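step: validate -> pass
step: tokenize input -> pass
step: predict -> running
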Amino acid sequence: PEVGAVAGNAKVGNRDTVIGAWQHIEYVMGFNLDRRMYDLLRCMPTIPGAIGAFRREAVLQVGGMSEDTLAEDTDITIAMHRAGWRVVYQEHARAWTEAPGSLKQLWSQRYRWSYGTMQALWKHRKSLTDKGPSGRFGRVGMPLVVIFQIVTPVFAPLIDVFTAYSMIFVDFRAALYAWLAVLGIQLVCAAYAFRLDKEKYRYLLMMPLQQLAYRQMMYLVLIHSCITALTGGRLRWQKLKRTGEVGTPAGVG
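step: predict -> pass
step: emit ->
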């Protein structure tokens, strides 16, 4: 099939704050490394709003951007897969985005992203039974997104609770070594992702604190989104405050 859309490499421009640095790590290690995997598996779930290109014919075929979900980028990407179009990743196509600058804005953005993604997955749930090349997303992409973006993060806090319990009541040293081992593996993966993107490694110094604070917040956001979805709650579009002062970081080509 022909290429219907291309996902670019989104970068955090305002990475000079703690919150910005945490998001920078997440974008490089999480979003962009994940996109490389999805590209290899030919089941890209989302064309990022910050940087993406669409074939006009493909957009018209799937009816354009839908207002059915709060994650219209994921919605149209899945629709293109189901219509038989290829969706690919191009790491050299870069754009610098202004990430949320406060915890409140970050929560609002990720709450909308999580809720909207679940809306899009539910809307396209019949893709699980699609046949042929157009059904590849349903067979491969849909299960991966559900497992790694919803199920695993929802239950991950239990591991943290177990680790804390083990440190306090069982064997502090053994639990600490186990936590450090996991952190070490994550640092290696992050370093590999930073190498692929030719990013400066100094931001990885923020990773231990990110794992203790930022990651927990993302878990809570997802749990909040799941509760809203399961209870039939509705979420409106929440506009983020932008400064318009973000550009290419110094020293970045």
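step: describe -> The helical segments are 18-41, 56-61, 72-82, 103-123, 136-170, 172-196, 207-230.
step: cleanup -> pass
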